[in-house]
Structures are given as C-alpha cells and as structure tokens.
Amino acid sequence: MQFQVPQFIETEDKIVGPLTLSQFLYLAGGFLLCFGLYFVLKFFIWIIIALIIGAISVSFAFVKINGKPLVKVVFSAINFYLKPQIYVWQPQNPQIPKTKETLRTTIKTDFVDWVEKIIAGLSLKRTQEQVMTGSTTTAQKAQVSFENTKEKYMIFKKITGEKRVARRVDYR
User: Which ranges constitute the DSSP H helices of the chain?
Assistant: First the structure.
C-alpha cells in the first residue's frame, strides 16, 4: 500500500484570495480601525493616522524577519525588554553562608586545616621555585598572556548596538 505524504506542512493555507487568514485579519483590523477613526477625527489628522495604521497593518501582514512574522518578533522584543534579565552565578540566598566559621562547623576541623596547609605549602613551594630559578612570576605570566589575547580577540558592535567579543582570525 502506498500513502500520499503531505509535503508543504509549514505553509499556511490561502483562505481569502492570495492572503492567509492571519494576513487578512491584520489588514481588515487596520482598515476597520481607520474606518472608525474617519468619523471621529478631522480629515487632515485622520490621513496621517490612517497612513501610520495602514503601514503597521501591512507590515504585520507581510513582513518576515529571519523567517518569523513581524508580530512574533515584536512580541519577543517586548517580552525581552519587560522581563528582568538576572544572570546569577550563585544563588541570592544560599542555605549556608560560606564563611570560614560555617565551613569549620559543617566540615571536620582537621580536614579544613589539612586542606589549608596543603594549599599554603603548594603556594610557598611555587614561590620558592620562582625565586630560586629566577623565573617570571605568575602575575607576569598572566600579564603576557593577557597582552597576547588582546591580539586574538576583538570587540565589535552588532547592528542592534549590542557589543560582542569574537576571536579575530588573520588569514595570511
């Protein structure tokens, strides 16, 4: 048995002539709004407002940005600007404040002292090796690597005005 598989699932059906239902509703809504304002406003003011409303309704009906209708783009932009953007690295109200005293009470005291001794010993050993060999310090190495990264990354502005950092690639 063979079955016919529909191919154009994502295209909307043309209901009113060459227009889809949503396009027809946007245009009809703009027309009805302009028609109602004709009886309320003076003719010169009505012309200006009717042009603005007509342009908005036509753009809602036909304009697509990156394959999405303008209505969805506008609603997404409104939601983006109205909803707060909070980027949290740690929770605002941690259950246990992370201080030395609370760590000592939650973890065994001997274990914390042991870890602190290991960390102190490693840093002292590293510093002693740097002094004995005359090598550069970690801060100097970090400064050199930072200067190298300045050459590899650039800050640029998008069309929307948003700043981004991107890796710079030189093809030579």
Answer: 21-38, 43-62, 70-82, 100-106, 109-133, 138-152
Residues contacting 57, CB < 8 A, separation 6+:
26, 27, 29, 30, 31
Q: Do 34 and 74 share a domain, yes or no?
A: yes
Residue 117 pLDDT class (50, 70, 90 cuts)? low
Question: Is 89 within a domain?
Answer: no
65 contacts: CB under 8 Å, gap ≥ 6: 73
Q: Please report whether residue 42 resides in a domain.
A: yes
Whether the pTM exceeds 0.90: the reply is no
**Cα Rg of the chain (Å, integer):** 32
Structure tokens at 162: 């948003």
**For 113, phi and psi rounded to 5 degrees?**
-60, -40
pLDDT of residue 104: 60
What residues make up the domain containing 18? 14-82
